[in-house]
Structure formats: structure tokens, C-alpha cells
């Protein structure tokens, strides 16, 4: 079973590409992700949490990619697939970058502020659940539509992991739960990057 068939929330590909409701949904997602991504990035530095920083990059990447996806709706099917391919490669690079930074921080680990970390994680989860609900009925479509859905889904899963990490940091007094979750978020980036690139290449292959 593919990721796009694992939910009963099926959309119409043609509608997703041309329906004004989809464009409106993307605008909402862009505002939510870019706005909160900046807030969470600041919070990540204040709390000294690598998981929050990684999650904020996911927010900012999601918002930027959603904005690009909104612009690409007016383009040809091939152009949209090329945009999705770029999205996948960007997400993969982001994942490797987060892993590298987490490894570097592991050598100089400091305990983050668990309460602030957990509080921001809860707010982030609420923002992402809202974005995911806005996009849920459009989750099936071409590679570009699927890519935007995967970014939003990733954010929600990552936020849950951040909240769990905050609890473990408070319980253990160790920075390792924070670093481990940052690594898990990065692996989630890489998995979705693979799915996006595979779907985009499949759509591009007949014209390559």
C-alpha cells in the first residue's frame, strides 16, 4: 500500500490543481508554516533545543515549498513534476543537514529548557494539525500535490516527537532525547524525500 492510498481522505487530482479552494488552502498553509516556523526557530535558540530547531526548519521548508507549489499550479504537468523533484531533493538535503548538525551538537551537548521546549511543541502540533486538516481532502493528486501533503504530515509527526523529547529531557536531565528526536525528524525528512523524488521521476519518465 502506498502512502497516498493509506487514508480514506481521497481528493480529485484535477480539482486539486484547478479548484480555487485548493489555492486558498495552500495560502493558509503558507501563512501558518512560515509564520510559526520563524517563531519556533527563535524559540529553539532560546530553549537551546536541536529538536525545535530541526522542526522549525521543517516548518520553514514546508511553507516555502507550499508557496512554490501554489505558484506551480498554473504550470504544465511536467513543470509541476519538476518542482516536486526539486522539493524532494531540498527535503533530502535538509535531512542530511539536520543529522550533521545534531552530530556536531552531540559533541557539545547542553540540556535544553524542557518546559519551553514542550510548550512550543504543543503549539506547533496545533498549528500542524490545522494545516493537515486544511489539506486532507487534497492529499491525492500529482507528485506536487502529494509532496505538499507529506510536508504537512511530517510536521505533525515531528511535533509529537518534540513533545515526547521534552518530557524525557525533564525526566532524565539529559540532552540526548532532544538530539535523538532531531535525528528522527531528519530521518523522516529523508523518507519523504525519497517518496517525493520517486513519484516525481515516475511522472517525468514518459517525457525524459
Care to describe what's here?
This protein is an all-alpha fold and 208 residues long. The chain is 81% helix and 0% strand. It contains 7 helices and no strands. Helix 4 runs antiparallel to helix 7 (176-204). The chain starts with 12 loop residues before the first helix and ends with a helix. Mean pLDDT is 76; it is low at 1-13.
Characteristics of this structure?
single chain; 208 residues; mainly alpha; globular; disordered N terminus
Strand content: under 5%
Computed over alpha carbons, the radius of gyration is 17 Å
Query: Residue-averaged pLDDT, rounded?
Result: 76
- Share of helix among residues? over 70%
For the sheet with most strands, the description reads: none
Q: What is the helix/strand order?
A: HHHHHHH
Summarize the structure.
This protein is an all-alpha fold. Helix content is 81%, strand content 0%.
Spell out the blueprint of helices and strands.
Layout: H1 13-18, H2 20-47, H3 50-72, H4 77-106, H5 114-135, H6 143-172, H7 176-204
